[in-house]
C-alpha cells in the first residue's frame, strides 16, 4: 500500500528555508501533541467514570461470546504455523430469533438459524492485504463428529449441506467443519445477524454499490437499475440475500454481490471520520457490537479493538475475493461439491501463506 511521503530536503539546511523547516517541525509536533492530548483525555475520562465509562461498559456488554477453542479438541485441529497470518471465519446468520430478525428474514415458518453467508478471510503475515474465500451455502460437505451445547455428541455425516451445520450443532462445529475441509487453522470467529447488519449499514449512513446489470427480485422486492446506488440497511440486506433476481437463481449467483458489498462496506467504515465525530463513532460501534458474536478470545471491547487496530493497515481496496471452486453435484444438480484439484490448491496456498494460483480461482459451477 502506498503512502504519501514528503521529498527529503538537503541536509544541514544548505538550501532549505529555515522558516519552512521550523514550520514543518512545529506542524509535526502539533499533530503528535494532538494525538497525545486526545489519548490522555480518553484515559482520564475512563478513569473518572461518568458518561464515557458508561458508554464503554455498554459497548463491552453488547458483545456476545461463544466458546470455540474450548469446544474443539486441539489434537484434531490443523497445526498453527508461525508465519501463516490470521484466518477468520465470518458468518452471516439468518436467525429468525426476535421480531426484527423474523421480519427482515421474510417471516414465514422457518425456524432456528443457518449460516446464510460464510467467508474465510485470510490476512497474510504483515497484514497489509487480505483474501476472502466464500463458501457456498449449498455445498455438500462431510460434517465431523461434534459436541452439541448440551454435551451430547452429533455423529459425523457425509453429504450434509454446509449451511445446515450451524443450525444442527452450532458455531464450533462450523469451525471444525471448515478446518476439516480446508486444513486451515481458524484463529477467530465472527458472526453478525440480520437485524445487526441492517442497523450497522444505517449507522454509517448507507453503502454505495455499483450494479452492473439490473436486479429485479420479486421475492425480496429489490428492484435496482444498472448504475450506482446508495443502499440503506433494509435495501443492503435484500441486496446481499437476493438470488432470484440474478444468474440462475442459485446461491452461487449472489456470492459475487456479497463479496462486492463486503468491500464497499469496509471501505465506507474506513472512510468515516470517527475521531472527528464521537457521536457517529459510538453509533457505529453500538450497532456493530450489538449484532456481533465472536469467539471467546475476542469477546470484549478491549480485545476486539486491539484486533481491529492490528488490521488497520489492511486496505479493503486491495482485498481479493474468491468463491470456493465448486462443481454441480452429479446426484443433485441443486447442490454443489468442492471441485478438485482447484479447491485443494486454494486451501494449500492459504495454509502456506502463499500466492493463490489463477487455476485455483476458477469454478466449474458459476451460477450463471
TL;DR of this structure?
The chain contains 11 helices and 17 strands. The protein is 38% helix and 20% strand.
Describe the model.
With 368 residues, the protein is of the alpha+beta class. The strands form six sheets. A seven-stranded mixed β-sheet has the order 1-14-9-2-3-4-15, with helices on both faces. The protein is built from eleven helices and 17 strands.
Q: Major beta sheet, specifics?
A: 7 strands, mixed
Structural class by helix and strand composition: alpha+beta
Number of strands: 17
Q: What is the approximate shape?
A: globular
Q: List the strand order in the largest sheet.
A: 1-14-9-2-3-4-15
Strand content: 15-25%
- Uncertain regions spanning at least 5 consecutive residues: 1-19, 29-50, 96-111
Order of helices and strands: HHEEHEEEEEEHHEHEEEEHHHEHEEEH
Count of alpha/pi helices: 11
Mean pLDDT: 78
Quaternary structure annotation? single chain
* Rg, alpha carbons: 23 Å
Determine the N-to-C terminus distance. 34 Å
Portion of residues within helices? 25-40%
Amino acid at each position: 500500500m502506498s503512502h504519501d511521503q514528503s521529498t527529503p530536503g538537503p541536509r544541514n539546511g544548505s538550501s532549505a528555508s529555515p522558516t519552512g523547516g521550523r514550520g514543518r517541525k512545529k506542524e509535526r509536533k502539533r499533530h503528535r501533541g494532538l494525538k497525545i492530548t486526545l489519548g490522555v483525555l480518553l484515559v482520564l475520562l475512563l478513569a473518572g467514570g461518568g458518561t464515557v465509562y458508561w458508554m464503554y461498559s455498554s459497548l463491552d456488554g453488547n458483545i456476545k461470546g461463544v466458546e470455540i477453542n474450548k469446544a474443539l479438541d486441539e489434537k484434531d485441529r490443523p497445526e498453527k504455523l508461525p508465519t501463516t497470518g490470521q484466518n477468520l471465519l465470518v458468518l452471516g446468520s439468518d436467525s429468525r430469533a426476535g421480531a426484527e430478525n423474523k421480519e427482515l428474514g421474510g417471516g414465514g415458518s422457518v425456524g432456528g438459524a443457518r449460516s446464510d453467508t460464510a467467508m474465510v478471510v485470510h490476512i497474510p503475515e504483515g497484514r497489509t492485504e487480505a483474501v476472502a474465500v466464500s463458501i457456498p451455502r449449498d455445498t455438500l460437505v462431510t460434517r465431523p463428529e461434534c459436541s452439541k451445547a448440551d454435551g451430547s455428541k452429533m455423529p459425523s455425516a457425509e453429504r450434509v449441506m454446509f449451511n445446515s451445520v450451524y443450525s444442527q450443532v452450532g458455531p464450533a462445529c462450523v469451525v471444525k467443519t471448515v478446518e476439516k475441509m480446508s486444513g486451515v487453522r481458524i484463529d477467530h470467529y465472527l458472526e453478525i445477524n440480520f437485524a445487526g447488519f441492517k442497523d450497522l449499514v444505517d449507522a454509517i449512513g448507507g453503502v454505495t454499490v455499483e450494479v452492473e446489470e439490473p436486479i429485479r427480485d420479486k421475492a425480496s422486492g429489490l428492484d435496482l437499475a444498472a448504475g450506482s446506488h446508495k443502499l440503506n440497511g433494509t435495501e443492503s440486506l435484500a441486496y446481499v440475500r437476493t438470488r432470484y433476481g440474478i444468474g440462475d437463481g442459485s446461491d452461487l449467483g449472489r456470492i459475487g454481490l456479497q463479496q462486492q458489498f463486503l468491500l464497499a462496506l469496509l471501505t465506507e467504515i474506513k472512510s468515516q471520520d470517527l475521531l472527528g465525530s464521537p457521536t457517529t463513532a459510538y453509533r457505529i460501534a453500538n450497532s456493530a457490537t450489538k449484532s456481533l458474536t465472536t469467539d471467546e478470545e475476542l469477546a470484549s471491547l478491549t480485545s476486539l479493538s486491539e484486533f481491529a487496530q492490528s488490521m488497520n493497515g489492511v486496505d479493503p481496496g486491495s482485498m481479493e475475493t474468491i468463491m470456493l471452486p465448486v462443481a454441480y453435484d452429479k446426484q443433485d444438480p441443486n447442490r454443489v461439491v468442492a471441485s478438485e484439484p482447484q479447491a485443494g490448491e486454494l486451501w494449500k496456498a492459504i495454509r502456506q501463506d502463499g500466492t493463490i494460483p489463477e487455476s485455483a480461482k476458477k469454478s466449474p459451477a458459476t451460477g450463471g
